[in-house]
Design a protein that fits this description.
By secondary structure, the chain is α+β, with helices and mostly antiparallel strands. The protein has two domains: 153 residues, Probable inorganic polyphosphate/atp-NAD kinase, domain 1 (Rossmann fold), CATH 3.40.50; 134 residues, Tumour Suppressor Smad4, CATH 2.60.200.30. It is built from eight helices and 20 strands. It has a six-stranded parallel sheet, sandwiched between helices. Strand 11 and strand 12 form a beta hairpin. The radius of gyration is 21 Å and the shape is globular. The two termini are 42 Å apart. Keywords: ATP-binding, Cytoplasm, Kinase, NAD, NADP, Nucleotide-binding, Transferase. It is found in: Cytoplasm. Its EC number is 2.7.1.23. It catalyses: NAD(+) + ATP = ADP + NADP(+) + H(+).
Length: 322
């Protein structure tokens, strides 16, 4: 078994982990959906409050001009953008947070999402809590969860042609709408089934509430160690969503007599897959770290984000009677 920690691990309060709060040499990277006016307004509030607290605020090239805040430190968009930062504050929806994860993951910087989108399942705070959220960052009063990610390898004729990763999912999809994709799924070096389908989703527990959920997969609690395999619109008797060991290697082979396909990772990174291509998915040794302000049970997050009906529940009343 690997020594890498569980998919979700709550670390100590960041103030305790890092030591006493100091006024100098602190920085926070802001990543914002600058196409939204609300995100720009929110960024101005965040930048002002952090700067007043003596914290250097970084902004990405391409976003700094839209933010129009001369006090920010402009940094290039590369794997070192978040190096040395205490956290990456993300102002937008889940798509913006996935974009920020590209910058935070290589250096292990926690992501703190403020939801300005719709569901915002990965976000920790809502727009109405923005000022209080900034105060928690200033005083380092937050915990950190580690979320499992996956490494994705693409092979052609046995040769590796691409390596990438995903927090939510890697999806092999048909590239031509009018024709069905023919694939063979493999688990740990053994063939599982051939599917005529629209695609196959290979997801993490975090991604179980994203594309895999829409394709009919189960919701998996983040602390459960597993990989999901979910066929999309498969024409086959055996086409159920599967949960396999986190130590397993999942492979999807595009059959030679099928149309070309495409690999999508987190809906952001894409790789063309000609007939005969092979995609391998395995658990990564590099997690994504999420800053948490509230240690809310995952069940409560599901109820809140999806608006699930829970009226009539008597559990709390029975607990009070004991």
């Amino acid at each position: 078994m690997r020594s890498w920690p569980r998919p979700l691990r709550r670390g100590p309060n960041e103030q305790e982990r890092r030591g006493p709060v100091s006024a100098g040499e602190r920085s926070v990277l802001i990543v914002a959906h600058t196409g939204r006016t609300e995100a720009i307004r929110s960024a101005h509030l965040v930048i002002r409050r952090l700067t007043e607290a003596g914290i250097t605020v970084r902004a990405l090239e391409g976003e700094a001009e839209a933010l129009n805040c001369p006090e920010v430190q402009v940094v290039p968009v590369d794997p070192k953008s978040a190096e040395g930062a205490e956290t990456v504050m993300v102002l937008g929806g889940d798509g913006t947070l996935l974009r920020a994860a590209d910058l935070a993951r290589p250096v292990g910087t926690p992501l703190l999402g403020v939801n300005l989108g719709h569901v915002g399942f990965l976000a920790e705070a809502e727009r109405e809590d923005l000022a209080a959220t900034v105060d928690r960052v200033v005083t380092r009063r937050y915990d950190v969860e580690e979320r499992m990610t996956i490494d994705v390898t693409v092979r052609r004729n046995g040769m590796v042609v691409e390596r990438t990763w995903a927090l939510n999912e890697a999806t092999v999809e048909k590239a031509e709408r009018e024709r069905m994709l023919e694939v063979v799924a493999e688990i740990d070096g053994r063939p599982l089934s051939r599917w005529g389908c629209d695609g196959v989703v290979c997801a993490t527990p975090t991604g179980s509430t994203a594309y895999a959920f829409s394709a009919g997969g189960p919701v998996v609690w983040p602390e459960v160690e597993a990989l999901l395999v979910v066929p999309i619109s498969a024409h086959a008797l055996f086409a159920r969503a599967l949960m396999v060991s986190p130590e397993s290697v999942v492979a999807v082979e595009v059959l030679p007599d099928t149309p070309r396909a495409v690999l999508w990772c987190d809906g952001r990174r894409t790789v063309g897959l000609p007939p005969g291509a092979r995609v391998e998915v395995r658990r990564s040794d590099s997690p994504v770290r999420l800053a948490r302000l509230h240690l809310t049970p995952f069940t409560d997050r599901l109820v809140t984000k999806f608006g699930l009906p829970v009226s009539g529940w008597r559990g709390h009343a029975r607990a009070q009677e004991r």
